[in-house]
Input
Amino acid sequence: MSKESTLKIFEQKQVRTHWDEEKELWYISVIDVIEVLTGTDRPRKYWSDLKIKLKKEGSELSEKIGQLKMLSSDGKMRLTDVADTEQIFRFIQSIPSPKAEPFKLWLAQLASERLDEMQDPEITIDRALEQYLNIRIFRKLD
Output
């Protein structure tokens, strides 16, 4: 069972992702999605408030959220709320944001790239090198 955690970049923001090969699902950090869509500097607070709102509305979405250890900004592995892409698409509908549509397209591209990589392993190597270089450049800009 192969599992792969990576950083993806959406509009200069890091989005922590995790590919579960056994389930063939992407898991994406909910906090990172909130930060990208809202631009808030307190995404954890936004998520906490949104979970309460969703529960009051009778939505079961927040109950389907899982947790995985992912690399945090302090360099440590910490439990982080994650959702698969289907849940993320539903989740995006709960957040009013002009970035919602571009983010949906980005998620679709992420899935498409994974399918390409499964067909041709050489693409995986090329894409990994590109991501590594992009992350290095991104970190130098910070």
